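Hi Y.,

Following your request, here is the sequence exactly as I used it, all 496 residues.
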Amino acid sequence: MTLKKKSSLLALSAMMALAVTACGGSDGDGPAPAPGPAPAPSPSGDRIEPYDPPASRAAEAKAQAASRLPATATVAQVHLGALPFAKSEALLNQRASEGVPLQIGVGRDVAATAATDGLARVLAWTTTASGAQVAAVRFTSEGAQGVRLGVRVDALPDGALLRFYGKAGGEVVEVTGAQVQALLALNQQAGATGDEALTYWSPDFGGAQTTLEIEIPATADKASVRLSVPALSHFVLAPEQVQQVIAKGIGDSESCNLNVSCSADVTNTEGRAEAQMSFVKGSSSYVCSGTLMNDARNSGTPYFLTANHCISTQPAASTLQTRWFFRAASCGSSSSVYSGMQRLTGGARLLYAAARTDTAFMVLNDRPPAGVRYAGSYFGNADPVNAKVLGVHHPKGDLQKYSEGGVSGYAACAGGDVQQCAASNGPAEFLAVHWSRGTTEGGSSGSGLFGTIGNTRYVIGQLLGGSASCANPGGVDLYGRFNLAYHDGIRRWLTP
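Below is the corresponding structure, written out as tokens. Let me know if you'd prefer a different format.
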């Protein structure tokens, strides 16, 4: 999210307001894709070029998952009442947050299935046409705009499948027991313990219901399924609707944000590298933005850059969902979603996280959809002050927007804390940016900042936050410097 610091950053904004002289802009570890062709050598050795995979390297289409539950089977029901009004209002009216991502959902305890024996009691097993054993339980959290189930996995038999879906006839997401165990193993290897180490978070499907369907082989013992759902995350705000609902009176974002679909240039380049992201911390849900990054080998490995204040731990990375091509269907539409939007739900492996530059770098567990662009990056030491820049992001989780402006100076932020930022007379960990068109908002944090070299744009930072808004167009936004994070550790993966 964009950390909308409206107080201590105002002085920083005022100090830098006159410094912009060149604004505007043009209208190792994880999945193992096949090695790509070697790129042409960089003319200066200080950057990685963007990469558009050839059609033959596009993501393979997955067979559409479907429920295997017989029509006559009983689906267990777990109902939670309406969320307490105070909790709902707190999210609907949240204002500037300092050092935390934009929250869209809250956790709710589920007493009926908090223990393995509780879930076992409600499951009604039946046999499929192929002889497998299957059971399902539907969770309803009244009034939710989406529900993510926190499934604690103590044991699953070999060959187990988990399926998740919302309304009948809608999308079905299927994961194997082996995939679930592999993701949880990442949590444990990172030092997580207890529920955090053993909880797999389902996707959300919009609306108040999410169903968990469990399938095991005919020969498996039902007692070997040791699952529980002690909590779920209740979305007060749907990620695609936040901008129309949240923070009433914060500013006229409709008139100030720039629709990516109105710029063919941005739509066809950086817009294809930027994704909306949602994730769970504890059992609450949040939104940010992030960028798909290329490496020096053009390998197609889905490296992903965002902010440390969004995701800084493996358990949070394991819950990551990303939406690609999440933009308006046309320039004239502010709410109709482009039909080519696609979602990945497989989480990510966290590779690097640093508060100093507010950087998080990971590799997605799913291959990105066809049509994405892997962003290039600049990690040299040229002074970017006065350079024109472009930001591409999802303000308040909304359809993709862009901003144009210039780098006005540097800022130092103690420990990457937006509350401890001050203008710097020389190079420091963060770039200060003023916008000539557009702005950023909650949900924009972690999004890429692109500087131009020749005719190509390269990532030079990711958003920490700032005071810029539609109501305060002269405010300053701060971006962690990518070149510092690169030399500190990210180079191990991008230029091995």
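Residues 1-43, 245-254 have pLDDT under 50 and may be disordered.

Thanks again,
Q.
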